[in-house]
Design brief:
four-stranded antiparallel β-sheet; globular; twelve-stranded mixed β-sheet; alpha+beta
């Protein structure tokens, strides 16, 4: 089952996408009532509109329930760490993104004026359906999975010789996510084994399988939940593999087209926009540079 969040005639809502991906039915039931059963919700749970809407008439939004949070982890594929000359960490490295960082599966990626090293990272994204309970697999709490591209400003913090995750991971309209959620019943509980790939201007840069994660998704969910209680609708970006621009200096440029594909889920394609200019006052804070006052 594919569940999608769209905008149609100035309204935003969840919908059920049909088998051929051309038509959807609006879901009227509240998200928390149907998202947490660990599989495909029954049509009676969804309270579907009888009249369908053509997907072509809608704008596809990131699959994030209003009020939900976006979490991410890094350093989760050994091949990526080895190419950067790093060892495997003892535990995950986590961070939080604001909702404003997300864009839809076919929206533009905003090139921030604060960076000259904009990088790409294909990631499997877990979508939480309900709170975690004491069960063998934390993944049983999921609604399903979607695609993500965790765009990063690699030069963030270099001027202050410190890690600056706010600049690196949280800037407005930089993180594609979507296009829909494929429900958990199509994968089963435990660690999914899915091919993930990313291309820039049709040149493949990243390719791996999610079975290569250092920390499986069960462990990532428990790690986050031990610190911040997970709630229905929360997203968890699960880390990226080798092939990123940081490894060879081939960073994204305005006008680039970035394509993401995850097996059994779907694809995204996003163009990198032209950088927006900062006012002189705002540019004083560029990449951690202190104000001259």
């Amino acid at each position: 089952m594919r569940l999608i969040r769209v905008e149609h005639r100035a309204e935003r809502f969840w919908a059920l996408l049909d088998g051929d991906g051309t038509c959807l039915q609006r879901i009227r039931a509240p998200f928390a009532e149907w998202a947490g059963n660990g599989g495909a919700p029954a049509p009676t749970q969804l309270a579907l509109d009888k009249v369908g809407i053509a997907l072509a008439q809608c704008r596809v939004l990131p699959p994030l329930e209003p009020g939900a949070r976006v979490f991410g982890v890094g350093l989760n594929y050994l091949s990526h760490l080895e190419r950067l000359g790093s060892a495997a960490p003892e535990h995950p490295l986590g961070y939080i993104k604001p909702e404003s960082a997300l864009v839809g599966a076919w929206d533009d990626i905003q090139y921030p004026a604060l960076t000259a090293q904009l990088d790409y990272e294909v990631e499997l994204v877990a979508v939480v359906g309900r709170a975690l309970t004491d069960e063998p697999h934390a993944t049983d709490c999921l609604l399903g999975y979607t695609c993500g591209n965790d765009i990063s400003a690699r030069d963030a913090g270099k001027r202050i010789a410190r890690l600056d995750l706010l600049t690196q991971k949280a800037m407005d309209r930089t993180t594609p996510c979507g296009p829909w959620v494929v429900t958990l019943d199509e994968f089963g509980s435990g660690q999914p084994q899915l091919d993930i790939a990313l291309a820039v201007n049709d040149e493949r840069r990243q390719f791996d399988n999610t079975r290569q994660m250092l920390f499986p998704i069960d462990e990532l969910l428990n790690y986050v939940d031990a610190r911040i209680t997970l709630q229905p609708g929360d997203l968890l970006f699960t880390g990226s593999t080798h092939g990123v621009g940081l490894e060879d200096g081939r960073f994204l440029q305005p006008g680039d087209q970035v394509q993401v594909h995850i097996e059994r889920i779907g694809s995204m394609s996003n163009r990198v926009s032209v950088p927006r200019l900062l006012s002189p006052a705002r540019s004083a804070g560029r990449l951690g540079q202190p104000d001259a006052r």
